[in-house]
Amino acid sequence: MGSAGFQIRYRGHHIEVSLRAENLRIRLQPCSAPAVRIGVEGIYAQLAGGEDMDFPLVPKTAKPSGLRTAIEETCNRTWKGIPMTKTRVAVNGYGVIGKRVADAVLLQPDMELIGVADIITDWRIRSAAGRFPLFASTAEARDAMGQAGLTISGDLADLLAQADVVVDATPKHVAAGNLPRYRAAGVKVVMQGGESHDTTGHSFVAQANYDSALGRDMTRVVSCNTTSIVRVLGALQDAGLLAKARGVLIRRATDPWESHLGGIMNTMVPEPKIPSHQGPDARTVLPGLDVVTIAAKGAHTQTHNHYWTLQLTRPSTREEDPRGASRGPAHRVHPDG
User: How many CA atoms lie within 13 A of 254 on its CB side?
Assistant: First the structure.
């Protein structure tokens, strides 16, 4: 392969990265966000929107080690003479969100997953056995998990005693109840979007408000629906294209493995008020967003679907849009609408 490329969004910038054997090219798409400092192999540059730079890559004499090993080697270096240590991460709750968080942490060279806590004894937690230490979130769960044949390394207090940060992926409202324990343990906290914005005082989407999370003791990562709204509409807003947005959200009725316990068939169940909670939730991340949403649950278990009517600030074309406003890391504009 002669070259590779990808796009990222960082601190309000859409950044194009092109990699060749001899150089790494960084290009920032035009925008009004503050300039950012970028460094490659010890060479640094301050780049603003619309600017680009080629960073030369010096061939290594050592045997090629692959991308992940290269990242690990970088993280094992020192910064201004200070050894870079790994952040110790605990995950409380191993369901839809927690298992993905655990897998993501395992892939980070600057993080260490020290364990996962839960109360369940079924196939979900059994699939994690042997991959990382398991802990019981409650005393009752510790007995049940032990009786189920799971090797338990301790309770939640034991897990928190080893952690720098805990990611709480427990069900809605459970996480808020855990907050006093986290504060007493002196750990930083990341909560999932089922909790209210007031629980942490900060709501987070990496592409939109990364800087505002720096130095905080806790934050809340908003739901998948709200994240989608912020990433798509925020990209249009950053490009100066979005005046206002009105959306209809059709949510899945239940998780696939719980579809036998309840759900709906051959109907839809609308949320009882307008706006639905997703629009106001998006404004906890982007306060200036002019957005109204209505939502309903559909008789399916796999996806959420969003349908938008947008008013733009000026005429635009499909050709302009994918190149800039809506070409984020996980969404695309389809050429036929």
Answer: 11
Which residue range forms the structural domain that includes residue 232?
224-323
Six-digit token string for 129: 């056995």
CATH number for the domain spanning 124: value is 3.40.50.720
Mark 151-188 as b/e (b = at least 16 C-beta within 10 Å): ebbbbbeebbebbbbbbbbbeeebbbebbeebeebebb
> By the 8 A CB rule, do 66 and 72 touch?
no
Confidence (pTM): 0.71
Dist. CA 290–CA 246, nearest whole Å:
9
Q: Can you spell out the DSSP letters for 322-333?
A: HHTTT--TT---
Q: Residues 194-249: pLDDT tens digits?
A: 899 999 999 999 989 999 999 999 999 999 999 999 999 998 998 889 999 999 99
Identify the domain boundary among 161, 194, 221: 221
117 and 166 co-located in one domain: yes
| 90-118 core/surface letters (b: 16 or more CB in 10 A; e: else) | bbbbbbebbbebbeebeeebebbbbbbbb
* CATH number of the domain within which 309 lies: 3.30.360.10
Residues involved in catalysis: 224
Q: Do 239 and 208 fall within a single domain?
A: no
